[in-house]
TrEMBL record:
InterPro entries: Cro/C1-type_HTH (IPR001387), Lambda_DNA-bd_dom_sf (IPR010982)
Key words, A-Z: DNA-binding
One Pfam match: HTH_3
Protein name: Helix-turn-helix transcriptional regulator
Residue ranges annotated for the HTH cro/C1-type domain, each copy included: 16-70
Lineage of the organism: Bacteria, Bacillati, Bacillota, Clostridia, Eubacteriales
Organism domain of life: Bacteria
Length: 108
């Protein structure tokens, strides 16, 4: 699994904070809604813990927040052909991380 740099973790955490504040909820409430411990969620917002694909999925399910909004600061579904080369690479890395985890679980 890819380890994010501190800068990447802070970038994602700022977006998570912005989206949480936009919907007007506390850290405690979001953690409860996505069935995550408060301390783990707080570490994600503080940039001390990686933002997992599981957390992205839970945020999407609970609040209809797309991964694009968190990972790329873009709203809604976009045609990948319109992504910058940098965003395409980030998306491919994310998909590789998801596929790699799925493949590893299936092999067990």
């Amino acid at each position: 699994m890819k380890r994010y740099t501190r800068d990447e973790m802070l970038k994602y955490s700022k977006r998570v904070i912005k989206l949480r504040r936009k919907i007007g909820l506390s850290q405690e409430r979001v953690a409860e809604d996505i069935r995550m411990s408060y301390s783990t969620y707080r570490k994600i917002e503080n940039g001390e813990r990686n933002l997992s694909t599981g957390c992205l999925f839970k945020l999407n399910q609970a609040y209809n927040i797309s991964a694009d909004e968190i990972l790329f600061d873009k709203k809604g579904k976009k045609d990948i052909r319109k992504y910058s080369e940098h965003d395409k690479m980030l998306l491919l890395l994310k998909l590789d991380n998801i596929y790699g985890k799925t493949k590893d679980k299936n092999e067990e």
